[in-house]
Structure to design on (212 residues):
């Protein structure tokens, strides 16, 4: 009576299992990737829907004219309570960056909600208890009539313990690195504050328009 496998038979079984694994693994990896891609697309749609909710709750500071765009960060959407602060990128299993750029653009009588998926610097400060806080003084979108002096209302920045921070830096992008009140254009003002080696940011949109 035969007992167990011979060495040759055992090697044959191992070889067959190895071949089956080689065939199955690519299919499994492809399935996992597709699953992550599908979840990622759902998350992007969730952010877009949250932008829509933000617009509905902030109608007075939305773009008024065709092709005007309000720029926000994901952090601003989180702070407004429009999206989960722990929203995660399924492709990386990490949080989406708090400084990811989002857009609400007026197109005719409707609005487009756009997520700049390639933006962001892996900056996450909203959930960090040691991070400074920063909030805008004044509106998130300001219309400036041509030849009118722009006076920035600034921000309120505090340490995690609530102590005011005076050292806030500013970067301007969009139509130029400075706001030109003589030329139509859209400008993004980025306010930056750092404390405990943690940086927090917030942005404001300024749109220069001709006299109405």
């Amino acid at each position: 009576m035969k007992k167990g496998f011979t060495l040759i038979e055992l090697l044959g079984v191992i070889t067959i299992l190895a071949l089956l694994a080689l065939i199955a693994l690519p299919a499994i990896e492809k399935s996992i990737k597709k699953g992550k891609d599908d979840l990622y697309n759902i998350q992007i749609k969730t952010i877009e829907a949250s932008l829509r909710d933000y617009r509905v709750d902030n109608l007075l500071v939305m773009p008024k004219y065709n092709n005007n765009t309000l720029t926000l960060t994901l952090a601003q959407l989180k702070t407004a309570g429009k999206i989960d602060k722990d929203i995660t990128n399924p492709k990386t299993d990490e949080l989406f960056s708090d400084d990811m750029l989002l857009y609400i653009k007026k197109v005719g009588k409707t609005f487009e909600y756009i997520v700049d998926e390639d933006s962001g610097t892996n900056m996450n400060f909203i959930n960090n208890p040691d991070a400074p806080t920063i909030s805008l003084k004044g509106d998130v979108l300001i219309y400036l009539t041509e030849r009118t002096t722009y006076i920035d209302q600034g921000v309120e920045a505090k340490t995690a313990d609530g102590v005011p921070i005076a050292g806030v830096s500013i970067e301007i992008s969009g139509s130029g690195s400075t706001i030109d009140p003589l030329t139509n254009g859209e400008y993004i003002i980025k306010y930056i504050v750092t404390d405990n080696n943690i940086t927090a940011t917030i942005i404001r949109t300024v749109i220069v328009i001709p006299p109405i």
Notes: The CA atoms of residues 188 and 212 lie 22 Å apart. The domain at 36-209 is CATH 2.60.40.10 (Immunoglobulin-like).
